[in-house]
What does this fold into?
Amino acid sequence: MDFSFRRRPLGTLYLKYTLMFGLIALAMFGGYVVTGHTLIWNTDALNQHLPLMAKYREIVLNWLHHPFSSHQAWSWQMGIGTDTFQVYSYYTIGDVFAYLALLFPAAKITLAYQVIIVLRMYCVGLAFIYFAQHFDFSDRVILAGTAVYMVNSYLLYAAVAQPMFTTTFMLFPLLVIQVERVLKGGSAWPLTGAFLWMLVANYYLAFVVGVGTIIYLVLRVATHYRRALDYGKTLLKLVFATVTSILLAAVLLVPELLAVQNSTRAGAEFANGLKTYPLYYYLFLPKQLINGGDTTFMFWSALGLAAIVFLAIVYVYTRPRQYPLLAISLALSLVMLLIPACGAFFNGMMSASNRWTLLIYLPLAMTVCVLLQNVPTLDQRILRIMILATGGYLLVLLATYFFQNDDDLFVPVIFLLVSLMIISRAIGHPGPGSERWLLGVILANVCFNALYAALPYNGGFANDMLTRGQYQAITSQRYGGLNQGLAQKSFYRVNTISNNDIIDSLKMYNDLTSGLNAVKSYYSLQNKYVGAFSRSLGNVQYQSNIPLNQLDDRTVLNNFLGVKYLFVQSNGDNATKIPAGYTLDKTTTPIINYDQGQPSNAKTAADLTTIQTSRYTTKNAFPLLYWQDTAISQATYRKLSATQKERALASGVVAGNQVAIKGLKKANLAGEVKKLTATLISNRLTPVKASQLVQTDPDETYRLTFPDLTKKAVAKATKGSELHVDVSSIKFTPFSMKEELAYEAAHDQYMLTNPGSTYNAKFARYQNWRKLVLKGAPDKSFTITLTSSKGEETITQPKQSILSFFKLITDGSLNLGYFGGQLPQSVGVTFSKLGTYRLKYTVEAEKLGKQYDQQVKTIQSHALKDLTFKTNQVSGTITTNRTGILTSSIPYSSGWTATVNGKAVKLLRANQAFVGLRLPAGHHRVVLHYHVPGLTLGAKVSLVGLGWTLMAALATLVFKRRRAK
It folds into this structure.
């Protein structure tokens, strides 16, 4: 099995492929169409891919019309403000398919997005055909391999959920071809081009594919070229291709790498702390191979190929010396699938996400090609091995079926047995008949897998797709229409209430369509300083890619970030958990749902509960930039609780070291936060020590009581406060499997209260063991829920299997809501998991009365006046009577520079995460300007690279001409 660069006629093959793709596309996407769905996923596509493509289309068109005008490098509408380059460079700039949106009018952007998805998949197949035609395969064999390569669980998901991932399925075959060309003594220029495309497409995926290409190179040399290779020349060509492509791509790579280093992704726990995967992963991994309709990935170990792949793998291992590269590649892949560290390495040293499996579909598809090409030459020995291997595999599947009933496997097993039967009948009967039959079975298999995944009746992907016209409805009714007509005379931001869904059942993380400056944002890279700020204040809603979320409904935090309007859905969670100072401004027309959520004793329409979207507004929003002459030292700040840190935002500024705050008055933090004593009491009516809470009964609940609030003086002093439970330390130790089973059994027997009840210990033990294994127990995840009259508040340690959303929880501040009257004397507490909890916490009342209102008025009176926004610039004037610090809620970045009265000044980080600068007494004109960090350096490197490339190209041309003479 060897590469051949001989030209062969491909027109007929491409025509056949196009016809085959039409059939596959009908199965892959037709299910969405006939059930009234689109190809727009309700999470990343809704929040990122589609709206960013639309925005980027506008940017490119504006550049085409005004190529010499300045272009937006900073957006105020992406969260609380962000570098647009770091967003677009991940999602759109290097994606060649995104530019096809320019061919569609703005009104047809959703159509453009979906057409491009289909086109991407067509190109995936083209890439494999181009790859496979370098081998001595017949057209039918190539088409069979193409079908296997295109239709798998990974691509069925990625095509609609993460469309840019499909590019890697085009890139990897092309990279392998060009590496092979170099190994055979050919030109390095095609490899340079492939490397360049890889680097500009997406830096994260470039790392994955780049490492995969290196692995291929090493294995290919070791198994085929180690004795015949001219190592010197080959190494020079590889270095040339690598260096040249990196130089040319530097304009993107340099700022991208700086963005990654300064993002919340930096410093993530390696492999989410996993040394091995949970037991269920190893139990169910075998069935992943052929379960093409599977929509639940385990750590991104998708697989899900045509059933014949199993037989192809068996065949390759009957001929390991004939196919050493395939045999070693697949064995290495299996080992890597078993070790979380491998997934974490390919995932940038973060979570154990096996997205790298995109690399193994190429060798798997090639095994199918090899099998089909050799079916007529198989003998009875190989057939017996296939039959025995299939029998063993079916026994494994049967065992997993009894452990977890998975009806999805029945049809793949049928296809596996049919494929084996056709192969057995083809032995000793040379001719094209077996190829035709097997191609037909493979097409039927992959079409079934695609259709099964797309239809909504099976819990497939269609249930996660927007319905036809829904995207337009969402964009026009993002806040129930209450965003329309809001004046933009001054800068402000908007927000929603925690876990309160205005758009029903959808995760609305971003707002890129209303034109408002929404706090919440969801992008792969987020400002690390904002993330640290959020965690420092104990924001339990923090995620690395959603660092602020909805600010946990905290009053001071919303005010500090300039949130003037809050939107609330009356039938959503926490609808009454409104921060202090926000008053009802406007509502949509009330709707009465007579069939849901109504009181049983209603007599008139006035007694019924109505549903509406409400808009709340406040006069306490902080300005975007304002002057402060009171400061908090770092030493003092570090001693504050999370609640005290939040409350201190209105009292003074934390800025750098002592030099930065020299000459400023010391902030007075007295009386702003009052600590309350608390007692934790079980529903067994016994007090519990939070420092050693052992949860042995899954139904045991608790009350957190506040004895101080029974005293009239304390109750009166804390009126008009926000109630926080600041957890400064939390450690959870799960029980062992044996211990947990014992406690579950004890609970089951405890619940047998009626006469004549018996307990089937063996069956119950099996059920509980099965339940715990499927949940991944024992594991470190847990949820602590506190319930007040305002709603629920949780602090959650996510499972390690949640991958990018995993975070290690050691503390957090739970906001139970603002109470205009007296605080509640107790709140409910529940723990989700059995185990030992060690908690250190304080209960604090954050007073939001006259003192706070006066501080806000002072801040507002010191706002930067005549605020003017231009592209990548904000400016204004201010007069100060003494030295102070210009504070802001603009996320800090090294890309910001400032001038005061025309002179450059040094910026500092104010309040951990925001742009600030010292101002002396006097009248000042302040101008802040933003540029993309590293872009200028990257552009210079790329210019050098362009010069180098032109010289190398000229030298190559001259050398070829001399050689031709």
